[in-house]
Amino acid sequence: MSESWRVRRGDLQAPPGRPSEWDWLPPARALAEQSSSAAPIVHVLFDGPETVNTLSEAVLTELEACIALIARAAGVQALVLWSGKDDYFIAGAQIEEIEKIHDAATGTRLAAFGQRVLAGLASLPFPTFAVISGACFGGGLELALAMRYRLAVDSRATRIGLPEVNLGIIPGFGGTQRLPRLVGLTKSLSLVLSGNRLPATAAYRAGIVDFVVPADGFAVAALRAIELVLSDGGRIVATARRRRQSTWQSFVLERNPLGRAITRWATSRHIARTTHGHYPAAPAAIDAVFRGFHRRRGDLATGLRSEAEAVGPLAAGPVSKNLISVFRNSEAARRLTWLTGPREELPTTQTVAVLGAGVMGIGIVRLLLDKGYPVRLRDIGEQQLARGLAQLGSGVLRSVRGSNRRNPRQLDDMFSRLTSTTKLEGFSAVSMVIEAIVEKMAIKKAVLREFENVLPAGAIFASNTSALSISQLQTGAQVPSRVVGLHFFNPVHRMPLVEIIPGSQTSERTVAITAGLAAALGKYPVVVKDSPGFLVNRLLMPYLSSACRLLEQGVPGPTIDRAMEEFGMPMGPFRLLDEVGLDIAVEVGDTLFGAFGPRAEPRPILRQVVDGGFLGRKSGAGFFVYGTHDRRTWNPKIPAAAQSTRQSSSAEIVDFLLDRMIDEAARCLEEDIVASASSIDLAMIFGTGFPPYTGGPLRRVDVMNAERQSAHGAIVERLRGRAAGGEDCEPSELLCALAKTGGTFQEVAKGPNAQRVVHAESEVK
Amino acid sequence: MVHNSAKVHKAVIVAGCRTPFVRAGAELKDAPAWLLGTVVTRELLLRSGIATTEIDEVIFGCVAQPADTANIARVIALRAGIAKEVPAYTVARNCASGLEAVTQAAAKIASGQAEVVLAGGVESMSRIPLHYPLSFGWKMAALSRARRLGQRLGALAAFRFADLKPEIALEQGLTDPVAGEIMGLTAERLVREFNISRTQQDEYALESHQRAVRARAKLQDETILVSVPPRFQNVVGADVGPRENQSLEALSRMRPYFDRRLGTVTIGNSCGITDGAAALLIMNETKALALGLTILGRIAGFAYRGCDPGRMGLGPVVATPIALRHAGVRFQDLRCIELNEAFAAQVLACRMAFATRAHAQRLGLDQALGEIDPQRLNPNGGAIALGHPVGATGTRLLLTLMNELRRTGGGFGLATMCIGGGQGGAVVIEGLAA
Question: Which of B43, B48, B233 sits opposite A419 (nearest CB)?
Fold first, then answer.
């Protein structure tokens, strides 16, 4: 009956090949037939029917039976757990099962069940070893933690961590209890709260694993390490663990009540400041870790119980559901599930050309180099090149300073892939050109024409424009089908979203390769129809405009910013405007005004501020005045309303700013700008930092609608109220229709773009 | 890839480029030699557009191979993204290492052993190290072996200040170990034997600068942009050696460097210590045509020949006749000659030895080859202005020569150089009009 778990009895000799290629039997048969004193080691292989190893309830049930059989078997001296997948050890619990938890009791029961299975593993009377090759997340790590020793394979695929908080829950199979006991309080808090995924060597330094074994021929090396441990009764590991744990920090912060109190206070304060209380998993995780850590070693049971009890409500709660939805949308975007043809990936032997050594160009160069591509950078001026390259160097050096993420050899490898030129030479073998030159159609067209003569036939010409029409750019090109929009956001290496904009003549292949490259660069591509502002900028404008309107009505700017930051935006609207540059905001505003008419009219105050010479952060002052050390104060020269005409609560401010954004998003759905509401949610989260706990601007409304009826209707009413007051903001037809029928954005019928749907449902099935 | 060895294949040049040449210790001082080689190789591959799997061999010349990049050609090939299956090796023939790389490529192609070879030269003279004397290392080893206190004190007492006196590897490299003379002194010998005046040398040096300044745009066709990671402090787009304001007066004020009392050879009328790299893509002609590439030049013949180490500057005179014979080209058919300017005195001595029967016979030749038209000799300046990154210059001469021939309507040309240790190298190429 067992499908996922296989067993073989053997010794410490590794058969040839990878573990998945060894001879394995179902557990019952293996333990019945192979019981011999000459085979003292029980090897267990986890190799589920899916491409990824996950811990579903069924898999855990099988594991429990398997452990029971092994516990009864005679002559066993050690257990070694291997994975049958190349890139995964165990990726964690099954997301589908977490998603299906709708009441706290179910969540707690599932966690307690997992804990029980792992307790069986932990109580085996002989040494147990996990050979971690590939991703080892969440439940996977918790399983490994229930074993006595862990070995990590030093390969690129190996990543070890507890990312549960990213899904709005906490580790539920004993992670919050066993990890602190192994590595101490501060290290486990940082792992549990950040969800960081460590490579093998970092996991060793943190004390999570006991050996790092080289990747090539890892089975032989792992068995040698196991032999070493068995031969000296584990003293070698015990000494190494003690050495890593006995640091002065641990004496000060962990081994006395005062230190623990300070640690807890500082951690909680940090979490409160960064999450504004929107992510209940974080405080719950802190609570669980401390609860377990106070107690003596023997009393694991109480800690486990409180962990399981904390998981239940979190898993059933709305934040976890929203975060899982974000995760699913992002996975779908990254996997390009909307592709009709085969996925095309540009191999890292292919050179990518970047035109323009400005901020965006250099950001793209850095990203490409970072992901292993050879890059040819071209700018027409040597001075611009020099400035851009200096920026590239200092940016990279700043990011590696004090971290051992990169050694000099890696920097050598990265930078030796870069060539730069001012000429139109050396492009005959590049596979893709990404232009990031000035936003002028005539210049972009001229450059495209120039490059058409030197590029090889199959090369793609991608434009990193944030405003210009791709269809217009490709008109008149020799091969219009290879022209596409590829809109990165600033700062390129940090913003996860890219908008991919096919023009009217862009080929499917061009879109596929461009999206493939974006995914290979670690970005989340969203396909957007070629229309003014594309998606993100179009939705940001009414939001920022509403903020300006509130300011004009007398609500203080800092109050507005604070309200949005408390809501969870990474920065308030006025700080955002300052970062973008107010002159640029006016420019984008004018473009959208031209395209969409009165409803997109830029607020007069924005122009007044620009006319006053305040261009935002780059000029030292915008809505805020910027001092040294990131200090900023509201600019006293901003024209204030004659008298404060209104007082607003935070909730009202949030609604006022988001209502217009949501309405504009509804229009985007009507116009088929993107395939689905999920795409909009994803784009706003990854493109603007819209708070993930909400699930995105549209999902937030849908969820509110499910909780208390007619959330869509409330927006319609508020917008109509504002329209009555003279604002040009008549709600869109779609929004009104949803208000009437009680439907949701997620169900809106797919338009002609339907095949490009990035939708959660298709992933589940 | 291995062809019938009886047939002789023609080696042609399809692409070439080089870094700007920069005085040692200046803008490129932070660039290790492998990096210079890597950017030039990447650029060459991008300009040619060929797949790296087409390459059969990578050969680089380098005189002072850095200790951290043994077989620097292989390091360059891998860092430049050339497929790992393509083999690579490094050659050394002192100042002609970059020439040797190219002639090995030509020989491999001629014999059918290879169809496509990437050949070049590289040198970072900024980064040639200083050494501790070996006695220092031995005494350190003795100290580390000492166990008891008495032994340790004894080992410590063995150290002398002289053990810490650095040995300058650059100077050692430029000194002929057999003759025991630094290169400049071999030039002083030619000065005396050919009776060359200080003024003649300075005038020649000035001419080199003036020609290089005039040829700036031409030279920029062959140079690439280099900016040194990870700081990218500046972008170097042109040779920095040629001086617009160089004057006879300034040159004449310089003190003799090698023979300070009676000498005439100065830093000003010698080649500079320089960083740089150059590379050519060389192919079997049939292959180049099959790949649809433009043929820029053909390698017609080449030769190396030894001479007296103390008169190494005359190397070109002994090597050239053999190369011409090998190529089947007459001396008077040469439309352009690149004769490396190690020292102004040495170029002037070569010119006289080429032209005069008595000198030629003293070098063991039957007769003089003939007068060299000064206008056709180093028309775009030479190493006195541009500098002489020893491992790279040979490749640079061929590149500059080929481009000059192409600009002036094609025809045969000669690149020749003197080689420390007493050798001459000469390559005859045919440039195809652009």
Answer: B43
